[in-house]
Each structure stands twice: as C-alpha cells, then as structure tokens.
Specification:
transferase, alpha/beta, two-stranded antiparallel sheet, nine-stranded mixed β-sheet, globular, Rossmann fold
C-alpha cells in the first residue's frame, strides 16, 4: 500500500535484529528504540513544507533563510511511545507535544482511553503519532480517530514493529495517514501478540517485565 513506508535502511535492519533479543537490558532497549526512531523520523520528515525567511547574514556573507512552514505536534501513546519522543523532538524542536493514554484490554483486546490532554482547539497542522508497536491495530485506530476528531488535517504514524494484519487494516481504513515502520511481521497470534515481534515494549523500556 502506498501509505505504508517500510524502512530499507541497513542500520534499521541491524537494530531490529538486536532489539528482538530477549537478553537486552532496558537501557539497551531504550537506546535501540531511540536509534530506530531517529532513522524513521528522518524518513517521516522528508516532505515537510519549507518557506523562506528573507535575507540573513552568515559569518562571511548573506543568504536566503529557510524554515519549516507548518506547525507540527508530536503525540506519543503512553507509555511506550515515550521511547520515541526524544528522537522525534530532536528532529522537530519547535513541535508541540501532546500525550494520549491508551492501553489494550487483555481479554477483549479493545483499546481503552485513560488520558487525553489535547487542547480544546486543534493547534497543529500535522501530527506525528509515536508508538513502537502495532499489533491488532486497535490502539492505533483509536489514536487516529481521536486526532481526526480534534481536527488535525495530516497524520503520520511512526512505529517500530507492526503486524501485517494490523498495518494493512489501518492503511486501508485511513488512506490519508502515512505509516512509517521499521519492520512488518507476518504472524499475529491468538493472544494478539506479534511474532517474532519485540515483546511488550512498555515493559522492556521501563524494566517492568
């Protein structure tokens, strides 16, 4: 699907392989998620609109300045989305940051919203949703619905490891949302877990497994 961008970067492939290893410490998991996030954000920001800011002065002459013209917001999905936030905010230093709290109920596998502090009025032109995992896609679906209802006109979703079933369902349902992912795994088991996957990212990031 045209709105699914799977990274072909060799370092992403290497870092995913390392991240899958169950023996990695939480510190190592955080470093790997951050590194993958930076490579994905490079791709996700390639088409940002630029405008000129007039004549500027360098140490040796004048030049025409350029800046990103639209307003971005970063939306990490608590709690594992925080693992991608440093990478994203380093790329988009002037972006707003808004947190959404969503979790998947273990029995029904349905998303449950427990935290939402979006401003009453949409204040961004473009949102980057940050969540390392897309399994069934229910949590991602809920997050996209919340942001569309908020009024944002453009959404990009940055994820590390996704299931083929989940990402294809989301991409078909939201053709105007672009999904930037590091790896797509074919298997989604009966418990809604991606196989081989990367495990419970929130637990691995926070050493709470």
């Amino acid at each position: 699907m045209d709105n699914i961008v799977i990274s072909k970067h060799p370092l992403v492939k290497q870092k995913i392989s390392d991240l899958r290893q169950a023996s990695k410490t939480s510190q190592q998991v955080r470093e790997l998620i951050d590194g993958i996030g930076r490579l994905l954000m490079y791709e996700a920001t390639m088409d940002l609109d630029i405008t000129t800011t007039g004549e500027q002065q360098s140490p040796v002459g004048t030049y025409i300045g350029q800046t990103v013209s639209k307003k971005q917001a970063l939306v990490p999905i608590l709690r594992s989305g925080l693992g991608l936030l440093n990478a994203a905010s380093d790329f988009l230093q002037n972006a707003e940051i808004h947190h959404l709290g969503l979790f998947r109920e273990e029995t029904t596998l349905l998303p449950v919203e427990y935290y939402n502090k979006l401003p009453r009025k949409c204040s961004a032109d473009e949102c980057f949703v940050l969540d390392p995992m897309i399994a069934t896609g229910g949590t991602a679906d809920a997050a996209i619905q919340i942001l569309l209802s908020w009024g944002v006109s453009k959404i990009k979703f940055v994820a590390v490891c996704v299931s083929k079933e989940g990402i294809e369902r989301l991409a078909a349902k939201y053709p105007d949302v672009t999904f930037f992912v590091a790896v797509v795994d074919d298997v989604l088991n009966e418990r809604g877990l991606v196989v081989p996957g990367i495990g419970d990212c929130g637990d691995r990031l926070n050493n709470t497994a």
